[in-house]
Amino acid sequence: MLTDDGCRLWTEVGGQGPPLVFCHGGPGLWDMAGDLATMFAGDYRTIRWDQRGCGRSARRGPYTLDRAVEDLDAVLTGHAEEKATLLGHSWGAHLALEYTLRHPGRVRRLVYVAGTGIDDEDTWKPAFRERVRGVPGGWDRAAVVRQWTAEFPDRERAAAHAEAMATPWFDINRECNTTLNAEVARRLRETDVAALCRELRVPVLIIDGSEDLRPRWAVDSLAAALPDVRRVIFDGASHLPWVEDPDGFSGAVLGDPRR
Questions:
Q1: How far apart are CA 117 and CA 255, in angstroms?
Q2: pLDDT tens string 5-28
Q3: pTM (predicted TM-score)
């Protein structure tokens, strides 16, 4: 599909039912929700997309939070005639939250998975950096697979999970990653997002893995600010709880009485 400024975005639609739109992590990565789309295809019309500059979408900016929200709005306008459920993972959880705060009338429910909350990142990032100390860095596939392997506490299956995440592989958009991370950090420093959340009347389901390398207490203030929120924490799971506990994850999403 094309955005209003002519950027080509890759999308894939499947399943039956009310619309469910996935917002992938990153920034600068690509949609990895194939398993999720299959998981929910019997209950939802699943809508996947690669964000601007990422994966199978056109590699062009601008890379701003406002533009990312506008692109998500274009996806909803093009593929969801009714209110949609948004399922955002990691950075995508923040993007989905931002969209919901700006366009609450377009969102039926927000599923906020493995996000990092709404506090200044300086409150949680030092703890995260300490937990990943010694994990080799890098942007090529081999280096990234090593980094992603560290995300999974089940060491026997960690490498296979990381390889699956990296297949298919697309080069990470480093400009997108750096620019959007800086903008999100600035917004959380300069804006009282908690006050905006207190006014939100959209149901929110927060899903965490207890072993996520990003400390889960970083999400506490978000959960406290939301008027209509449920929170599910999967013991033993980490940053991709649907990979580590697919039955539990689908049960949490589909079993939410507000869906």
A1: 24
A2: 999 999 999 999 999 999 999 999
A3: 0.97
